[in-house]
Write a structure and sequence with these properties.
By secondary structure, this protein is of the alpha+beta class. It is 38% helix and 23% strand. α5 packs across α6.
Length: 171
Amino acid sequence: MMKHDALPADLVTLFSRSPELPTPLPADPFPLFAAWFADEKQSARTPNPDAMSLATIDADGSPSVRIVLCRGIDAARGSVTFFTNYDGRKGQALHAHPRAALCFHWDDSDRQVRLEGAVTRCTPAESDAYFYSRRWESRLSAWTSHQSQPTAGRAALLAQTDLVTQLTHFV
């Protein structure tokens, strides 16, 4: 066993720059999360503060995680809004098991927020409004690719893009 009279300087620095949590911790932590989220967006410390890990369970019980973007926080309802393709792996997983875990990681602020709970679909009108708010390149990509499905390669994806562009008069 080793005895340390003082913490190493790098460890002291790590803990001294960490954000302080309120004491006592709030019974409802969601307003604190919303405040941290707003701070991250305003401060520009994190390149993409909206990025969060979305973990789900597939119909066969296999876990799956990927990064999605937070598109809204409602502190009063305690909810986070995100969008994913209904036909993609995440959409299918959420249909089979409508529960998920989210994790925001803001490394430069030494903050992490985890959320777990039930997931509900937004209305078709909300989905459409979000889809049409996206840049046209993102919409074209969504229409072109078959989410979570293997592709024959870049040439096949570009050919599909050309076809969708011609059929929709997109560009």
